[in-house]
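Workshop exercise sheet. Pairs work together: one partner reads the sequence aloud, the other fills in the structure field after running the prediction. Swap roles for the next sheet.
Pair: D.N. / O.F.
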Amino acid sequence: MMSFRVAVVGMGRMGKLHARVLSQMEDTELVCVVDTNPAAARAVARQRDCQALNDVAEAVDLVDAAVISVPTTAHIDAAAPFVAAGKPVLIEKPISVDVPSARKLISLAKKNGVVIQVGHTERFNPAVLAIQKYDIKPKFIEAHRISPFTFRSADVGVVLDMMIHDIDLVLMLAGGTVKTVHAVGVNVIGAPEDICNARLIFDNGCVANITASRLAIKTERKMRIFSEEAYLSVDYGRKIGIVIQKSQNLDLIQMAREADAENLAQLAESVDYTSLVKSEQLVVDDSTEPLRMQAEAFRDSVVNGTPPVVSAVDGLAAVRVAGNIVSSVKHYRWDGKVFGRKGLDVIQKDT
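Structure field:
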């Protein structure tokens, strides 16, 4: 197999991680790293034994593809030169800050026959891969993604920064189209929202309740999925989960249905319900780093023509829902219809 020549644009935290992973992959050559800060580019280039560049235009002709890991607001500007030259790109999530700019890049990619993969890395989380082994049709999904403030991605709100992960996963699991969005949010640090809760209602009846905060005092990434066939509870951070399948608990269900209220009340004094329920642990294969799996999938899509795991259309769908959530937040009436206060507070910086 010919060497896959790639550039990484943006030497922030994620860019450094991408550079490490790509430099360690077989049949892959990290040709260069690009950053407008010369010192940042040189530092990583020395560490990964590649060229340091300061302008995207200098990298386009040197590589077969690029990983875009700049701030979200600069995604399109950084990716467009590669796409225009017919070079595939892996763009860190989200694909862009809004729908129009994402559509513009997708149109350019179609014109040039270029693959775009979006870096929704949670798709490669071992716990997510374990969930997909079950044939479930969710009716209700609850997701929590909270963390302390990292001082990164302050150019966008928590919806595009953190909630976008769960938006993408919910869209993948629900399999329908979002018809209704209700959301409320709070901004503390700056103009964009820092805490948000959104309720999504799909055309197939599924309902999703998603909460994200970047001002918490602990880190938590969890999802609960209810369906007619099973209940799943997943901890993405710890990569563990449990599954309770209806088919494995028919005896217990039948017993409870046949007993009257008085008999059930008597059981409460002597039987531990949790000991009767048959549950199973998610079988999670944690042998490969998700970022490595994502990079390998990107290489396969470029070299072998396999469909991208998270396509540009998937990325656009997530951004569209994120935009609807932010819009709902801005129009939410905090005090009902009686008073005019709505949306987010106006942050006044001291001068």
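Discussion prompt: The chain has two domains: 4-121+290-312, 124-288+324-329. What would you look at next?
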